[in-house]
Specification:
Blueprint: E1 3-8, H1 14-28, E2 32-36, E3 52-55, H2 73-85, H3 87-101, E4 105-109, H4 113-121, E5 125-129, H5 133-140, H6 148-159, E6 163-166, E7 181-183, H7 197-200, E8 209-213, H8 224-230, E9 234-237, E10 247-249, H9 256-261, E11 265-268, H10 272-281, E12 284-287, H11 295-302, E13 309-311, H12 319-330, H13 343-358, E14 364-370, E15 374-381, E16 389-394, E17 402-404, E18 407-409, H14 412-430, E19 435-440, H15 448-451, H16 453-461, E20 464-467, H17 470-481, E21 491-496, E22 501-507, E23 510-517, H18 521-529, H19 534-542, E24 552-556, H20 558-567, H21 575-578, E25 582-584, H22 585-597, H23 601-604, H24 613-629, E26 634-638, H25 642-654
Parallel strand pairs: 1-2, 1-4, 2-3, 4-5, 5-6, 6-7, 8-9, 8-11, 9-10, 11-12, 12-13, 14-19, 19-20, 21-24, 24-26
Antiparallel strand pairs: 14-15, 15-16, 17-18, 21-22, 22-23, 25-26
Helix pairs in contact: 1-13, 3-4, 8-12, 13-14, 17-25, 18-24, 22-24
């Protein structure tokens, strides 16, 4: 599993919201993200709670402001010097963190001190922004020659960055401190438009909405009563106001991205976050530039091709002046433009550049294991047993199957959802320089509908689809787990899927035995739904499972890993901490008691799929049954599934 550390500027909220959007994309590719930011936790609420960890850390000071967000040069200078006075302390702290967590990549937006920490920790550093701090400080402190050593230090550290990504609303000068720089599409916080949001806020659907936001750096000198009196609709902001009938206050943690998407107008200062979120929703922009702030020029130039906008030369307008402003905005008749974000594409580009940088001379394989309920992904260096990165998505393709005669019939909507989820995931891997392989198991062997996926994968993604036979699947399970078998000892390897279970018996010097039975967690669920008792389901299969004796039981894949996360009470999903751990029969019994007692709240916070606790319950019983069958007191968890085994098989074939 890849682990990225995000260092986010403490200046304003725009850096934070766009980096949260980027972190969300990486989470969807299974990347664990460390958030190094002291901004409020609610700004990261859309991230996968199991795949990110946040620590309040400040590595830059941005720009301090006076009234009307005018830069406070004196306060900014003092804060900058105080920060640099703590340079050694910050670097030592961050180097210790990076080494302890074995972080793979630093992404900074756009503090410079993490670049130095990355140098000492021997970790690549990428930068992403629409400006760098040298661009800002060089202009703010143009006449302060004594600050040149500090500015030169910032420049020197930025020069060490391995790759920089220049967002829109920028220029070559605003990101001029970097050696390798690449332009990207729009990166912005985004929520799908919520048609019920107006209703939730108590606003009639036909009434215009004006949202007001001036970022996280202070207030603007604005006569709110005049402005609200002039607007023929509802005005919304986080400011506390009284005696204004058409004004609504929302809490500070309200999702402003959703609010902007239903707003007719956004009144704001120039800022990347506000501009980007308005542009992706097609919302009319009214903005008032700040005085003497270097970023203003590139921001305003950046929206030159966005037609639905208006610049104000002052905010203290009379009621009649505000009425004219709002009339022109609401009656805008020109061609409206929407500039969609490219969040997924930006994340995919960063992944591509990281892999190219770190594995440029290596042959890589991307392997997609399409099972009955999940897709398991492994990006591997050819021949290596430990993948570079792994991820999973729940496809639910076999969750509502029907058995007609000897054929499995699938829900058409599930097939459609499967293609959508897989396509969304494939975008991240698509440009990684690797050979791509699809392997299919379980339900795919029993449904002619799924055999049609071969055509879909080949046509849409140019990837070969291979349907594995049961014996081949068992061989791959052995290859995945063999490194966990101590030398000269025997092992039984078990891979529980949705529609089948693979067993492999290994003993040194003796031919490996393999067995597959048509029992998995989805078929167990279906049997229970049809009235069968768990005990009887397992008893019916007992005779088909040999009474092997072995030194170790090793259980591979997601079923074992998800169970281990709960048993070991791991808040975050960190496979490197689960791989190789041991689960005892006593721990299984204790977990079963919790589930049966109804105290589910004790474990839901650790469950990767809280909505599928019945599957968890069946897996506990199934593993308990198998341990009893093989007379074992526990099993070892192998996080790596058959995708990792397939990578090793490919290496043997190519050799």
């Amino acid at each position: 599993m890849l682990k990225f550390a995000f260092y986010i500027s403490h200046h304003g909220y725009g850096h934070t919201t766009r980096m949260a959007a980027l972190a969300k994309e990486f989470n969807q590719f299974g990347v664990f993200v460390y958030i190094r930011s002291a901004k409020p936790d609610y700004l990261f609420q859309d991230l996968n709670p199991y795949l990110y960890e946040k620590e309040d850390t400040i590595c830059d000071v941005g720009v301090k402001h006076k009234k009307n967000l005018e830069p406070d040069i004196v306060a900014t200078r003092l804060s900058l010097l105080q920060l640099m006075g703590k340079r050694q302390e910050i670097i030592e702290r961050e180097v210790a963190f990076l080494r302890k967590e074995r972080v793979d990549l630093i992404i900074t937006d756009i503090p410079w001190l993490p670049v130095e920490a990355g140098t000492y920790a021997e970790i690549p550093v990428f930068a992403i922004s629409n400006f760098d701090w040298l661009f800002i400080y060089d202009k703010l402190f143009a006449n302060q020659i004594d600050l040149k050593p500090v500015l030169n230090t910032i420049y020197g550290l930025y020069q060490r960055v391995d790759y920089a990504f220049r967002l829109p609303l920028s220029s070559t000068k605003s990101m001029g401190s970097f050696r390798k720089i690449e332009k990207t599409g729009l990166l912005a916080a985004y929520k799908y438009p919520n048609p019920d949001l107006k209703k939730f806020l108590g606003i009639d659907s036909h009434i215009p909405v004006l949202s007001c936001s001036f970022g996280g750096e202070g207030e603007m000198n604005l006569n709110w009563k005049n402005m609200c009196s002039a607007f023929p609709g509802i005005v919304i902001s986080t400011k506390e106001l009284e005696d204004i009938p058409n004004y609504k206050k929302v809490p500070a943690d309200f999702d402003f991205s959703s609010l902007i998407s239903i707003s007719d107008i956004l009144l704001t200062k120039p800022g990347y976050g506000s501009f980007a979120e308005a542009m992706q929703s097609g919302t009319y922009l009214i903005y008032f530039p700040r005085k003497d702030y270097p970023e203003e020029e590139v921001l305003i130039k950046g929206i030159s091709h966005y037609p639905q906008k208006m610049e104000l030369d002052r905010l203290n307008l009379s009621v009649s002046d505000w009425q004219n402003v709002f009339y022109n905005a609401l009656s805008f008749a020109g061609p409206r433009k929407i500039i969609p974000n490219k969040n997924k594409q930006v994340a995919a580009l960063i992944l591509q550049r990281y892999i190219e940088l770190h594995y440029s001379q290596k042959k890589l394989n991307s392997i997609f294991d399409i099972g009955s309920n999940n897709m398991n992904y492994a990006l591997c260096e050819a021949g290596k047993s430990r993948p570079i990165h792994t991820a999973q998505i729940k496809t639910g393709i076999g969750s509502e199957y029907k058995k007609i005669g000897g054929t499995i019939k699938l829900n058409k909507e599930n097939l459609k959802t499967f293609k959508s989820k897989v396509s969304n995931f494939m975008v991240y891997d698509h440009k990684i320089p690797s050979c791509k392989y699809i392997i299919a198991t379980g339900i795919h062997r029993q449904s002619s509908q799924l055999q049609q996926l071969s055509v879909w994968f080949t046509k849409k993604w140019k990837v070969k689809y291979t349907l594995l036979e049961e014996d081949e699947e068992a061989k791959l399970a052995y290859l995945s787990a063999k490194d966990l078998i101590p030398e000269e000892q025997s092992a039984i390897i078990i891979d529980i899927g949705g529609f089948s279970t693979q067993f492999i018996y290994y003993e040194p010097g003796i031919k490996i035995n393999r067995l597959s039975i048509p029992l998995g967690l989805l078929t167990i669920r279906r049997n229970v739904q049809e009235g069968k008792e768990l005990k009887n389901i397992f008893n019916e299969t007992m005779e088909s499972i040999p009474l092997w004796e072995a030194d170790h039981i090793i259980c591979i894949g997601l079923t074992a890993s998800f169970l281990a996360k709960i048993v070991k009470r791991k808040r975050y999903y960190r496979p490197d901490e689960l791989h190789g751990c041991r689960i005892s029969s006593k721990e299984l019994a204790a977990l079963k008691d919790i589930v049966e007692s109804g105290k589910k709240e004790e474990i839901t916070q650790y469950a990767m799929e809280p909505e599928s606790l019945d599957i968890l319950y069946y897996s506990i019983h199934y593993y308990t049954f198998l341990l009893d069958r093989f007379q074992s007191l526990g099993f070892i968890v192998c996080y790596y599934g058959i995708a990792a085994g397939y990578n090793q098989k490919l290496h043997k074939i190519n050799d």
